[in-house]
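User: These chains co-purify. Model them together.
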Amino acid sequence: MKRIARVLAAVLVLALLAACSNNAAAPAPAASTAPAAPAATKAPDTAAAPAADTPAAPAGAHADIGLDGVKFTDTRHITVEIFDRNNDGGTTPADNYYTDFIKQGVLETHNIEVEFIPVPRWTEGDDINNMLAAGTAPDICVTYSAPTIQLYAAMGGVHELTPYLDETKDVLPNLFEFLGDTGIYWSKDPDTGELYSVEGKRANVAKQTTFIRNDWLETLGLAVPNSEEEFYNALIAFRDNAATLLPNEPDKMIPLLMTYDVGWMAAPLINAYIPDALTDKELYTLGFDDRFLLYPGYKDAIRKLNQWYNEGLIWKDFALYGAGDTTNELLSKAGYVGAQMQNWDSLYRNGEDSVITNIRRATGNDKAGYVALNPFPNDSGKVRTFPYAPVGSDRKVFFPASNDEVYASLLYLDWISDATNRQYLQIGDEGVTHSVEPDGGIRTIAVTGEKIMNSLNNIDYTITCNGLSFEDPEVTMKSIALGYAGVEAELVIQAYELSQVNSRFNNAGTLGTIAAEEGKGTELSSKRDVFLDQAVVATPDKFDSVFDGGLNDYLASGGQAIIDERTQVWEKYFGSSINLDK
Amino acid sequence: MEKTTIKRFGLYMRQNWTLYVMLSLPITFFIVFRYIPMTYIQIAFKKFNLFKSVWEMEAAGNYGFEFFIKAFSNRDFFYALRNTLLLNLLDLVVGFPAPIILALLLNELAFKMFKRVTQTVVYMPHFLSWIIISGLALQLFAPTTGLVNIVLQKMGFEAVPFLNEPTHWVVTYIFLGVWQSVGWNTIIYLAAITGISPELYEAASVDGAGRLRRIWHITLPGIKPTIIVLLIMALGRILGSEFDRPYALGNNLVKGVSNVISTFVYTVGIRGSQFSLTTAVGLFQSVICVIFLAGANTIAEKNGERGIF
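Assistant: Joint model of the two components:
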C-alpha cells in the first residue's frame, strides 16, 4: 500500500515538474510582454544584389532603404494577415494557388518574401488583439474597424505612416493610382497630420434593396408596387390571402420579414422618410451610426413599421432571434415571406442553395422568387439611398509597431493594388474560374480543387479592393450580373442598381479622432437595436414613449456627446457652411 | 522537549510525506491559475494598454478610481445591478427550496427503481448548456412558432408572451433555471438524508409519528447543516452573475430586465475594448460577494450553526 502511495507521489511530482517546465517554455501571458520581438525576422542577406551595377534611373533615390529601383537589393521578409473562412472544400488560406501567385510575383518584382498568417475570419478582432499584445501580429494587418486601429494607435502600437509614404511615394504608383490621395489619407488627423491606416476601396457599394415575391403578386393579380401605399396594400393582400398563397400552412404567412436589426431590414423604407434636403454637415455630424438612426424623419418611418406590425403584416417573432441567427433566411427559403428589405444580393447568393433557387424548387415554378423594387420615394418624390461609401467603409490596412519592414510592406500594398495583379486575383484563369462573354462580361465558373477561391473574387487577398473592379465600369456591371449561378442577369442588375439610386454618403472624411466615440460603438448600436425593436412591437399608444425614451437614453449614453463633438469639428474646418462644394 | 517535538515532526513527515506531495498539485493549481492572475486586478486602477505589462501601465485618474466613477455614473450599470439582484433573489427564493422539496419527495418513494429513474431524469438537464436550453425555449415558447403557444392557441387560448414580455420572461427565466438545476442540487441533499440514522425513524414510528411528522422532526433537522452551508454559498453568489443564462435567454424586447452585470461587462467593456472599466466592475462585484458571504457566515455562526470558514 505504502509502496503504491510512494509511486503515485513520485509520478505526481514528475508530472508537476513537467507541467512547470512546459509553462516556462510557453509564451508568457499576453498582457505582460512588450512588443519587443518583431514578428518577422529578417532573412539573412544572402541574396547578392544583382542589380547593383544596373544603374536604373531612380535607383539612387532610395538606396538608403536598400531599394534599387523598386527592388530590394537583399531579400526582405514580411508577414501578411489573411482571413481564414474555413469554408467547405476550400484550400488552405495561407498556402494555395493564389498565394503562390502573390509570393512569386512579389518576390520577382520587389525581392520580398511573403508569408501569410491565417486569422479566423469570425474572431478576427480577438485574435489580432492577442497577437498584437504578444508582439506576433503580422506585419500587414487588416480590419474593418477604424476604432480598433485608433485604440491601438493611442496605445503606441501602430506605425505612423506619413513619413514613410512621403519618402517612397514615387515607388508606389499603383497604390496611389488605385486608392488615390483620398483613400490613402482618408483617416489622417487634420490637426496632427498623423496617419495610422490606409483605406481599402469598396468597389461595390451596394447595400439594401426591397424585394417582393413576384409569383405571389401574379397569383393575386397585383402589379409590382410603385408607392408605399401600393406596397402596403400588397402586404395586406398577402396577409388576407394566406390560404391561397400557402395552402398547406397558411398560419406560416409572413407578409414582411424583419430581424432584430430593424435599421438594416427597413432601410429602403426609412430612407424615404429622411428629408431630401439632408445636408453634408448632417451626413457628417449625425451619420456616425451605421444605421443612420439620427437622421431626421427616422421616427416616422419606425412609426409606420409599428403600424404594420400591429396590423399583423410583420413577422411576429423577429425580435427573439439575435445576431448571426439564420431563422429569417430559413423562413425565406421555405417560401413563407412575401416581401423583405435585404442585402442587395442575399436572396441570389450561394447558387443551388440560394433563397430564390429554393423557392423555385419548392414551387416548381422557375419564374418564382423575388424581384427588386423601390417603391419608397422621399419628400421630393425621389428615391434616395445611403449605400456604403466608396471610401471609408471598407477594410483598413495598418502596420503594427512590431513591423520592422515598413517600406517592404508598402511595396506589397503597391503590388496588390496593381490593376493586372488585382484582376487576376479577382477572376483567376480564363476557362477555369471564368469565361469571357461576347460582350466582354466575365462569367464566374464555380470550381473545386486547388483553384477554388476561398472568398468571393478573392477579396481576402486584394486587401485594398473589395468587389469586382475592372477598368471599364460596364464590364464590371456585366460581370457582377453574371456572378450568380442560376439567377437571371436582369434580376441581379435590377437589385444592384436599385440599391444605389441617387446615393448619398459622407464625403468629408473622418476629420480626425472623435474622443467621445472611444469605446462607445457597440454599446450605442446595441442600444439602438434594442429600442427600435421595442418601438416596432409596442402598442400604438405606447409607441411615442418607447421611441422617445429609447432615443433619449441613446443620446444621454454618449450619442449627444458625439454629435456635439462632431459639430464642433465640422465648424472648425468648414465654418458655417452646411454643404461641401461639389 | 524541543528535541522530541522535532523528532516527532520528523517521524510524522516520514510517514505522511506522500500526502503533502499530493497536496502540492492543487496548491500549485491555485497559485498559478487563481493567485497569480489576481495581480491583474490592478488593471481596474490603471489605464489599460495592450502593449505594456500590467506593472508599467499608467495610473488612472482620480487617484486610480477613474473607472469606478465611470461605472457608477453609468445608468446602465445600475440597471444591470438591479436586474442582477432581482433575478438572483428570485432564483434564491424559488430555486433554493426546490431541490430540498424534491429530495424529501424522492426520499419518501417506496419503489426504489422508480426513485432511481426519476432521479436520473431530473438531473439530466444539468448537462445541457444554456445555449441549447435557449434553443429549446425558443422552440417551445416563441409566440407564433413555439409548440406550447401553438397548442394553447389550438385550444382557444391567447398566446402567452413567455419570452417577449418582461414579466413573463422573468418567470420563464426562473422556471428554466429551476428545471435545469433542481435535480443536480438534489443529489447533495439525498446524500445528507442517507446519513441520518434509521433508528430515529424507527423510534418515531413506534411513537406514532406519521410521514409528515417524521419529515418535519427528523429529516429536515438532519439535513439542516447542509442546507445552511448551501444557503451561505448561495448568498455569496447573490451579486455574481452567470453570463450564458441571461445572455442566451435574453432578447432585445426584454433587455430592460435581462441585462445583468455580466452581460453589461460583455457589451460595454469587452466588446467596447474598455478593459479597465470591465475589471473595475468585476472587482466591485467580487468585493460585494465576499461581504455577503462573510455576513451570511457570521449570522449562521451566531445562531449556533457551523459556518464554512
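Chain A has two domains: 67-205+393-482, 208-386+504-574.
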